[in-house]
Amino acid sequence: MAKARKPKNDEASGAKPSENSGAKVLHQKLCLSIDFKKRQIYGYTELEVSVPDIGIVGLHAENLVIESVLVDGEPTVFEYYPHYQNAEPENNWTSVSDPASAADAAAVEYVGVLKREDTTANLLINCCKPSKDLSEQLDNVALENGSQSSGEAKQNVKLIRISYWIEKTESGIHFNENIVHTDNQMRRARCWFPCKDDEYHRCSFNLEFTVPHNFVAVSVGKLLCQVMSKEDTTQKTYVYELAIPIAPRWVSLVAGPLEVLPDQTNFVISNLCLPHDLSRLRNTMEFFHEAYSYYEDYLSAKFPFGFYKQVFLPPEIVVCSSTLGASLSVFSSHMLYDERVIDQIIDTRIKLASALAKQWFGVYIVPESPNDDWLLDGLAGFLTDMFIKQFLGNNEARYRRYKANSAVCKADDSGAMCLSASSSCKDLFGTHSIGMHGKIRSWKSGAVLQMLEKQMGSESFRKILQKIISRAKDPSNAIRSLSTKEFRQFSNKIGNLERPFLKEFFQRWVASCGCPVLRIGLSYNKRKNIVEMAALRECTASLDARLSVGATSDSENRDVDVGWPGIMSIRVYELDGMSDHPKLPMAGDRWQLLELPCHSKLAAKRYQKPKKGGKPDGADENVDAVAPLDNKSSIESPLAWIKADPEMEYIAEVHLHQPLQMWVNQLEKDGDVVGQAQAIASLEVLKQHSFSVVNALNNILTDSKVFWRIRIGAAFALAKSASEETDWAGLQHLIKFYKSRRFDAEIGLPKPNDFRDFPEYFVLEAIPHTIAVVRGADGKSPREAVEFILQLLKYNDNSGNPYSDVFWLAVLVQSIGDLEFGQQSLTFLAPLLKRIDRLLQFDRLMPSYSGVLTISCIRTLAQTALKLSDSISFEYICKLLEPFRKPDTILQVRIEASRALLDIEYESKGISSALSLFMKYVVEESSLRGQVKLCVHTMRLCQIAVGCDSDDCVDTVSLLDLLHLFKSHVVFNNEFLRHHLFCIIQILAGRPPTLFGVPKEKPLQLVDVEACIEPQNVFSVPGAEPGEPSLLALGDANGKSLDVAPFGVPVRSQEMFMPTAPEMKFSEPVAASLHEAEHIEPHMENQNQPFPDNPIVHEIPSDDGEAPTEELAKAEENLPTKEPQKEPDVVPVSVSHEVKNVIRIKVRPSGATSRAEGSARTVERSQGIVVRHNIDRRQTSSASVDAPQRISADAHMEEVNSCHDVGSRMTASIGSVKLPTEGDTVGKELQCTAESGKTSTSQKADDNNQEVAVPSLLPQDNNMGNEAQQKYGSLQTLSVGKESEKKKEKEKKKEKKRKREDPVYLEKKRLKKEKKQKEKEMAKILSSSSDQAAKKIEIVQEAKPEGPSDKPKAEPPAEARPSTKIRIKLKSKAFNNP
pTM here? Predict the structure, then answer.
């Protein structure tokens, strides 16, 4: 029988938020009436709640007015405190002076708000007897719970009815003219109905919405009926039921004058839109039933929600292009297209298929924890890739996967890209799925699952997905959550993959970051008929980035690359065929030497030299007459070309170095689109392009059988190859190809457009853009290129073409913006601008599809003005573009005009002015999606401003305005805007645009206490007066104190607090300033340990946090022996109010200490060392110590940086003490103060000086005389007994014997020995200047270091020599960075 749980002391107050977790909503009914005339929404919700023993139910509610709350039909007491209605006055942000301090303030504010939204319930309902006040109920119920056992607890189900109305329809739900819709943002369901707004809290729903009788209300679940209102015949009620439990976030609603278009093939599919979009909706949805049926066939199951509804709303209304609800997806109507539009087809179909896939994996099958989000995202992406492969072709699917993998390899360089780790998922509060980082993570998730599919086979992987769905549909035991651990088990049982492989696979690809980078070179050995290959394996992420997400931080393994599981295959194409060689291991030694046997043999042929008089002019008949060296190499070896990882079994960046002719062979003869894309990428980056390369690219361009995306890539490579050296051969090929397809040979002018061949249309559409990027030696566009584009614009004729030429014209106009006008081509600028003006006027009279043509004209005008700023006035362009920002303009055009104006503002006035203009535009923009687009564009401008080496810095006023906007209610309504604003502030400070790596426990005075500290009592009103905040004082980027008193003790300037953790390691190089040190996250084995009660305080007397060299020199020259009369340069290890025994250790500036002199103070700051002026002046005894150059990291690990009780031994580490300046000619002294006693948790204060109590380390002997105690007391605690020394020596011998047999250790030892030798040579040079200063140092006691020392020891004076031999063990782990 289970033992009754004893109540904790802190549980008696009912204060913890975790007490609320017992309340579970079993079912919820929502009834709302929508008044479109008054723009009001009111109604009630009923919740069947399993009430916890405490009797209090906590719900989330925001922007609501609660009228009454009933529990089982009786009124009850409730407390409601909206977070943003009772917000305190905004801070004045007085401490913000630079981007770093602004980034710190934004981080603390952001983390605090997200934590409060995620954990704090703000609608508290008393479900006990309502006879007493709520505060009394909390106390009494908690006491009663102490006497009950967990086994006797019963499920107490209550029916809670909440009547309310929505005060502000700004967040979560919106009124737009005659349309009401929800946006399904994270943690915003609470803004339109009270609920348990948690991703992992699910219940079933009944929904009733009353709207005007001529309106349609569409929501999640199955439509049961439509009921006409008895009281008002003009009202109609739509009743929906959803029996499948879902999170409140997935409850969606759209109400308005919508037209319903049922699918003609599958009656369970319904499409809705506004009346004017009905024809485009009908054309767009012709294919959708095929995708719907394909998913059901692939998963061998029917759609789980029964009915599927798709609603298309204007772009000005939706917050993003697609939002999801259970069985309901809301899209932007710009995705719809009519039968005349070509370019939108592929993008729209993929987005619709992706939204349907997320209904299966993401809404129906849900992640078990935040660390499993990647799995559901990846499964939805995998299902979408299967659709692309089935309906758009295998070439399209492989090409997209290749491009996605390339993007992942470039971006996967930090812990933010780790798919499943607590630091990258749970602590990010869902922000990892927003923006470009979210796209990269989604691509990586799909790629990882495709790698698993390659390992187990496509059919086995399909069975796993079918198993997941069938398990969820099982009525007896429905399990709809999926975890990474369960998926690993499925991969083992169904996929037949071994457990060791799966463990290593998930650890490396899912729980870590970084992708392999392979640099491969090869050589053909003719005598052995083999290919000799050398491969170097690297990683896109640094070792510190991998350690930041939980990888091992053992110092023995820091230099060892663990690699990736499996073996990469090398495919060799020879004259007689192709062969695979799975021989390249992805783990182990980073350098690999391989020998690949060749199966083809060369016939005895003589090499034929090219004919005399042959002129390689680039013509097709002269292909064999160029590049004789490449031809010779191809004739002397049977190799055609070589491919690494041909089946994309790894997300890897491969740099393969093979002869030029082999790349040409791969481009022309390889039928795989990935191989052709790799060949084009390698040929494009060549510094010089031979005619053989140009002709090979032209052959691909003109071959209609080649995949059209590869042909476009070849066209861009031809444009890159065009130069005076090749006589503009690439440009001539591009023009010749276009004229052969689109020009009339007789009259020499373009023919009327004919777009019936879609692949040919896409290729020809890209040609003007490729011609526009051709550059000469002077960086200008050739005259032929400018003249050709003008000719295409002038003679464009779309008569008789069944398809629209709006995208065609848009590309032509954008090509003008890509041109660089020189003196010869400047005469064409005026006619080109006239053509743009004509197109603008034409598009104003007859608007094009989604304003595409106007957008391209605006973009081109802005680009041309920026390039020709001397000829074109910015003011004139701004006046021309300003009318396009009117509110009645469509969203796409309005946002493009704002972008162009922001670009001009940045180029003309700088980043601060651009930020001010951006904030003005954001406030004026009414569309949530428009705000996000403006913010994303400004984020790119900030990246450009930070990346360039200019003196354009952001002023403080702009930073303060950004912070005020970041904290405003406008940003609360749009979580995407809030996140991108946070990214902007981080970018300005030179930090990554992500919440990953931001200190979660870094309090700052700039924000409210409640925003960054978890509330101690969720049932107390936040508006009440808080107690004394236990905040830690942190400095800003300039080291200035924020004057926050930690632990209730006044703190002087220049003080920072941080717990000193054992075995702390710092990433190299150590930052040279506090601003840099704040960005570097130290890698500790115990980062998650709680703060100690008594932090260790270090003191350095300096005004600016750095010891001045001149003051140190003066102090050392006149240093007394026993009783110093002036303030020494000391670093006390502990502080107390009693007289302490002190050891002064004078350190001679040796080679080891001189190597890192400039970063000593930086290390101290990054560890949170307290800097003070007022220190104890007491009697000390001194000892001179020569610090060894390198301290062994293997010996006595348990003693390093550790605190011991009375009678134990303490080791002091000074081996890596760093001096302030190089070549310092004075001695440096380090005073270590230690005291015995147990760790004190109390805080003591002295009348003259208040300090924080810390653990005492030094025992005291009361029988000793005061003088002897002061002189030798602390030294006795540092001595080591003979017996213990013998034991240690034996252990050392055993350890050394074991290491002698370890080849890995021997190799590392050899490398360290070489490194030591170089350091010694450098140390001799650096220490030569300090020899004279070393002779002046007063020496009291000689301490012999463990390691050997090349320098002679100075003999101490006889009067200072003790009677016993003292040995001081010198260890350093915290500051020793090998």
Answer: 0.71
